[in-house]
């Protein structure tokens, strides 16, 4: 494990690794599951793969008030996002920081404590950001506590309760983090620069694809809409999103199709056309490549 958890009275808490098959099925790429019985309750950590560092989901259900010390083996800037409950974060030589659902904290500290309240039910995501920020060519994020806005909440919800991850789960989870952190950069002002970066063009292309999902925009048309030459945008998009624009476009179409199947009474032909698939064969082929089922079989399996 990359994180050591201890208590001042009982010492190190040994989280044993469980078989991944014992954990409920998830559409994310599950790397490992760890668990410990302690303090009349349970501590669990799930680790999910991304194309950068893994994302860790910590969950605590403990009866007494408990202070736990956490030490990270690998240094770096860490993103902590509260998913459920509340706790107090105590960094060495700093004031205590109250963390509640809907807040995040950026920190470089590798040794800190968390204070969990009585009858706690607390969970949070933890992600070491350095590999991703280097890949995105982002300047350093400031440390501190920040509130999630509406779109950041949506990205968090998608990560914590994913119904399906179109395409590669590792790429999909990393893209949710990229979008959440991009919003955070704008909120704290570190994304405001004179002139656009290549990633700004990639985000603009992402928005164009989403806004024109039913249309068959070519990569050249998308590039013109965002104001960049075709080959430059292609290279940048593949670098930052780990896939080409055409593949990303089809993944979003399939994701939208699954939403329409679940939440509307539209026919499959209507869904096909509204998602931008011109032929039944194209719809079935792309849908099957992503979900491993054809649209009719997927509807039968997931919609009562």
UniProtKB/TrEMBL annotation:
PROSITE patterns noted in UniProt? HTH_ARAC_FAMILY_2
A GO molecular function annotation here is: DNA-binding transcription factor activity
Q: Which domain of life is it from?
A: Bacteria
HTH araC/xylS-type domain mapped to chain residues = 203-301
List the keywords (alphabetical).
DNA-binding, Transcription, Transcription regulation
**Spans traversing the lipid bilayer:** none
Q: Report the SMART domains cross-referenced here.
A: HTH_ARAC (SM00342)
Determine if DNA-binding is one of this entry's keywords: yes
Q: Which PANTHER family match?
A: ARAC-FAMILY TRANSCRIPTIONAL REGULATOR, HTH-TYPE TRANSCRIPTIONAL REGULATOR EXSA
Could you tell me what this protein is called?
A: HTH araC/xylS-type domain-containing protein
């Amino acid at each position: 494990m990359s994180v050591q958890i201890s208590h001042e009275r009982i010492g190190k808490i040994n989280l044993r690794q469980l078989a991944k098959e014992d954990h409920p099925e998830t559409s994310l790429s599950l790397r490992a599951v760890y668990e410990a019985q302690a303090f009349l309750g349970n501590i669990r950590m799930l680790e999910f793969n991304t194309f950068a560092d893994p994302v860790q989901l910590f969950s605590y259900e403990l009866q007494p008030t408990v202070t736990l010390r956490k030490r990270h083996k690998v240094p770096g800037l860490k993103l902590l996002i509260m998913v459920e409950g509340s706790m107090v974060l105590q960094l060495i030589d700093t004031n205590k920081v109250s963390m509640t659902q809907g807040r995040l904290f950026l920190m470089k500290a590798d040794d800190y404590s968390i204070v969990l309240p009585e009858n706690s039910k607390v969970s949070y995501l933890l992600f070491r950001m350095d590999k991703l920020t280097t890949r995105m060519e982002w300047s350093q994020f400031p440390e501190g506590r920040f509130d999630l806005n509406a779109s950041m909440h949506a990205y968090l919800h998608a990560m914590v309760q994913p119904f399906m991850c179109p395409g590669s789960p590792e790429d999909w989870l990393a893209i949710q983090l990229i979008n959440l952190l991009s919003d955070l950069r704008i909120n704290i002002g570190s994304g405001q620069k004179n002139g656009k970066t290549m990633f700004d063009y990639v985000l603009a292309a992402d928005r164009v694809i989403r806004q024109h999902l039913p249309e068959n925009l070519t990569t050249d048309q998308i590039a013109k809409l965002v104001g960049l030459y075709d080959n430059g945008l292609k290279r940048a998009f593949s670098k930052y999103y780990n896939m080409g624009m055409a593949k990303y476009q089809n993944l979003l179409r399939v994701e939208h199709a699954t939403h329409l199947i679940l939440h509307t009474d539209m026919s499959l032909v209507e869904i096909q056309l509204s998602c931008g698939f011109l032929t039944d064969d194209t719809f079935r082929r792309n849908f099957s490549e992503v979900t491993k089922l054809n649209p009719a079989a997927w509807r039968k399996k997931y919609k009562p």
